[in-house]
Amino acid sequence: MRAARFVFAVAAMCLALSAAYSAQQARDTRAEMALQAAIKIETIDGDLKAAIEAYRKVVATYESNRPVAAKALVHIGQCYDKLGAAEVKEAQKAYERVVREFGDQVAETAAARARLAGLAGAAGAEGGSTMAVRRVWAGPKTDSMGRVSPDGRFVSFTDWDTGDLAIHDFATGQDRRITQKGPWATSNEYADLSIVSPDSRQIAYNWFNKDSSSDLRIVDIDGSKPRILRAAGDGVNDLYPKAWSLDGRQLLAEFWKTDGTRDMMLVTVTDGSTRLLKAMGKDRSPGGVFSPDGRYIAWDVREGPSLLEIETGREFLLVPDFTQHDVLGWTPDGKRLLFSSDRSGSTDVWLIAVADGKASGEPELVKKGFNGNTLGVTRGGALYYAVSNIVKDVLLAELDPTSGSVVAPPQPVSRRWVGITRNPDWSPDGRSLAYIRNPTPNDSVIVIRSTSTGEERDLHVGLRRVGLRLRWAPDGNAVVVPGLEDGTGWSLMRIDAQTGKATSLMPLSMTVGPYPRFDVSPDGKTIFYIKSPVVSDLSRFYVVVRDLQSGEETVLLEKTIFSVSVAPDGKQLVVGAQADGSQVVLVMPAAGGEVRELVRIDEKEADYRVWPSWTPDGRHVVFAKGLDGKTHRNVQVWRVAAEGGEPQRLGLTVQDLSSLRLHPDGRRVAIETWTGSVEVWAMENFLPKAAAAPTAKAK
Description:
Layout: H1 2-45, H2 48-61, H3 66-83, H4 88-101, H5 106-119, E1 132-138, E2 154-159, E3 164-169, E4 175-177, E5 190-196, E6 202-208, E7 214-220, E8 227-230, E9 236-244, E10 250-257, E11 262-268, E12 274-281, E13 289-290, E14 296-301, E15 304-309, E16 315-317, E17 325-330, E18 336-341, E19 348-355, E20 358-359, E21 364-367, E22 373-377, E23 383-388, E24 391-399, E25 406-412, E26 421-426, E27 432-440, E28 443-450, E29 456-459, E30 465-466, E31 471-472, E32 478-485, E33 489-496, E34 502-507, E35 518-520, E36 526-531, E37 541-547, E38 553-566, E39 572-579, E40 582-589, E41 596-601, E42 613-614, E43 620-625, E44 635-641, E45 648-654, E46 657-662, E47 668-675, E48 678-684
C-alpha cells in the first residue's frame, strides 16, 4: 500500500508540474503576443502614445517574463525618443530601468546603455548642448547603401549574403530581409541604394533584375506589397532613389541614361509618373534631400550646396564652395542645412541657416573631422553616417628571380603615410615607382618615387577625382589613370609625370566606371580593358581592345572576366576569369584567337582581387591563391610558365594582398594590401535649440 501511495504521489506531482509548465507556456505566449501587438501599434499604426501605453501594460502584466519586459521598456524609450526633445527625460527613465533591473538581458541592456550615452546632455533642456558621437552598428553585414528610418529605429541595407533588401534594428541588433530572392547560385538580382519613407513604413530601392535592367521599386517594411514604380527603358539604364518628400507622395530619383548622362527626376509614388527637374549631363550626382516644408530640394552642384525650388525650377546657390562638398540633410525645423566640406583643409561638418531659399549668415562649423557617407537625419535631429575603415598600403619586397624565394620581406614604401597609399606601378626603365595617396576619400595625389634615392614628389592633378588603377605609359613620361573631370565625366587620362597635365585618352562608360580593369599595349597605341554590355549584368564581360587614334573597338573575348594584362612583347594577353565555380588563368593572342587555360584554381583557394600578370621577361604568369579557403588573408603568390606546365609556389605570402607589380629587374616587387570594414555612427545633440519639427503623414 505504501508503495502504491508513493507512486500515486509522484504521478500527482508530475501532473501538477506539467500543468504548471503548460500554464507558464501559455502565459509566455500571451506575453509575446501582447508585445507584438504593441509593436504593431508603434511601427504600423504609427500611434506612439498608444504604443507607450500598450508597452506599459505589457511590463505591468508580464514583468516576470524578463526578456519580454526588457524589450517593452526599450521600445518605450524609443517611442519617447521619436516624440522629440521634450520627452528626453521619459526616454531616459525607461532606458535607466532596463540597465538597473534587467542586467541579465544582454542585448536590451546594451541598447539602453548606448542610447543613454547618446542622450547625455539632452535631458532637462530642449536642444541639449553636449554633442555625442556613438557607433550604432558594426559587423560583417554592415553596409552603407541604405538610409536610416526617420524615426531612428532601423537602417535599410543590402544583405550581400543573398543580395536582398534588409533592415537592421538598432535596439535589438537583429537583421531582417525584406525581399526573398534566393541565393546567388540561382539569381544574380540584388538591391542597391534604398531610402526609407517619412512614416518609416515603406522603402524605395533600386533593383538590378534578371533582365539586365534596373528598376525603381517600393515595398512595405514587412515585405508585403512590392511593386515596380518605374522600370528601365526608353534610353534609361539605371534608376536610383535619392529622397522622399515629407508627405510621402513623391521621390527624387536619378535616372542614368544609356548615353552616359544623368537626369534628376521627380517621381509620383502613386502612379510612377515623372517630371524632369534638371538634366545633369555627365556631371557628378548632386544627391538631394527635400526641405521639410516641401518647397525646395537641397543638393550639390559644382559651385557648392544649392537649393532647387520645386515649383519654379529656379536654383539658388547657398554656399560658394569649389572644394569637395556634400549635402547631408536638413535640421528637423527646416531652418538649417547640414553639409560637409573640406573648405578648411579637412573634411568637416557645417551648418548654414536658410530663409526663403537663401543663406542667412555664414556657415557654422559643427564638427571637425568627418569621414562618412550620410545615411540621413532623423526627426530627432541625429545625423547617421557610415564610415568605411579601408586601409590600403603599398609595400616593397625583393625576390630571387630564379628560385622565387624572398630576399627582403615586404616593408611599407612610406613611413609617413600609413593606410592611404595604393595602386603601385614601376616605370618602364625601373627608375621610378608611381602610386596614389588618398588623404581623403575625395582627394587623390599621384606620388612619383625615385627607386635609387627614395625621394618622392607629389603630382597634384587638376581633376575632381582620380579613380582606382594606375599604369605607367610605355614611354615612361606619363601615368595612365581614370579621372573625373567637370562636365565630361570619367575618362581614362594620361597624366604627364613632370607637369601633372591631364589629357583624356578615352571616355569611360557606365559599363566600365571609375575603376576600370585595363592595361596599355607596349607601343602605347591601344588599350585593353574589361567592359560589360550593360551595367546590371554580373555574368557577361568582354575583353575589348581600343585603338586610341581611331577610337575603334574590337571585342576579343566574352566570359565572366575580372582582369586582363598584356605581355611585355604585346603579342599575348593573360586573362583572369571565372568558370564553373573556379578561377581560371587564360592566355590568348592580343589580336584575338585561340584561348588556352594555364591554371584552374579551386573556388576555396581563388582570390579574385589579385589579378594574374606577366613577369618582366614574359616567360611566366604570376597569380595568387588564398589559404585555407579564406581569400584575401595570407595570400600565396605563384607563377606558371606561359607555355604551360606545373605551377610553382613562390616564397611570398602576404596578408590582405590586393595587387602586385614586378620591377623590370624581376627582383623587386611592389605590393598593395587592402583591409576594410564598414561601421554606422550617429551624431546627436549637436544642433542649436530649434522649434519643433513639422510633421506630415504619407497619403
